[in-house]
User: Which sequence fits this backbone?
């Protein structure tokens, strides 16, 4: 009989260990209040890039652009020439010819 008692104790210990092992593994898989059917939360967004602006140096020579300024559009040139003609006192009947000649220079 002592071997039967010993065998039942060993079986109870093994059963308890298996049940406890299942409970521990279930707790590790799912967080408290979670479910196996809930998707995992999305990853946090990337932090923004912070770039330090370029600070001009006192010793550095100034950078100059040698490109000519872009030419204004034809419409802008016509308007400037019409304003110039009106300021110069050109008669309204002659302003059209003056503005065409002025804008095409």
Assistant:
């Amino acid at each position: 009989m002592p071997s039967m008692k010993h065998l039942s104790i060993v079986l109870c210990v093994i059963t308890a260990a298996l049940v406890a092992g299942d409970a521990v593994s279930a707790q590790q898989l799912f967080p408290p209040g979670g479910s196996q059917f809930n998707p995992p939360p999305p990853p946090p967004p990337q932090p923004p890039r912070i770039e330090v602006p370029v600070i001009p140096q006192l010793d550095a020579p100034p950078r100059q652009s040698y490109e000519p300024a872009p030419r204004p559009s034809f419409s802008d040139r016509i308007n400037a020439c019409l304003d110039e003609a009106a300021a110069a006192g050109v008669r309204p009947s002659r302003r059209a010819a003056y503005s065409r000649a002025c804008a095409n220079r």
